[in-house]
Amino acid sequence: MRVATRFSRNAMRSTGLKFSVNAQIKALRGMQVPVSGPKLYDLMDDFEDAHLLFKVSDFTLSIRDNPKSSYKVYSVDPGLSLAVAPANHLDLGQRLETAVFIELKRRYGDNRSNAIASYSAKNCPEVDFVVGDEATGEPYQLIQVAVRTGIDSTSVADFADPSLSDKFRSEMGNLTAAMSNTALRHGTLISLDEEEGSVTTPAGTIDVVPAWRWFLQ
Questions:
Q1: What is the pLDDT of residue 61?
Q2: Whether 182 contacts 139, CB under 8 Å
Q3: Domain count, the chain
Q4: Interatomic CA distance for residues 159 and 143, integer angstroms
């Protein structure tokens, strides 16, 4: 019971992040806690069946799913994950990303033609969400969530477009790379409260939308 409680809290705290059950098994065994690997994998499936949290795989790996690979997890509620997090843990980015996922889940449900996944490639570390047809491997919507105040000047060093927002250079760089890879000419960047309208990139147009407006669309 104590192992299950610790495992569930670690999973909930990881909302919006990569989560590896295998890493959790190694960590528990490293603390001399006896644990059954298969039971933890089953427990993770039970959490998802109970709608406590959801697993999100990479879109490029969705057809050949590996149950032991890492994936992103999302709590069913941002407040619930915050309730079990350490007192000093106030990551607004994770909470906003979780809220966006829950809204995508509400809009698109869970079916073959509206699969919700993450996206990554050699030239794109990660785009938070891609919506597409899982069976055919055809994405049709790219969404990045950002709560940024710093500047990452290395992520899009090859961009010369002066209209790019310095505040979201890294996120726009990943979105642009994903748009180029997937031949999609449009991407969406959801910010906490900043609105910059449409931004032109070499691969197409990115709409920067404040979260409150996106949720009301």
A1: 44
A2: yes
A3: 2
A4: 20
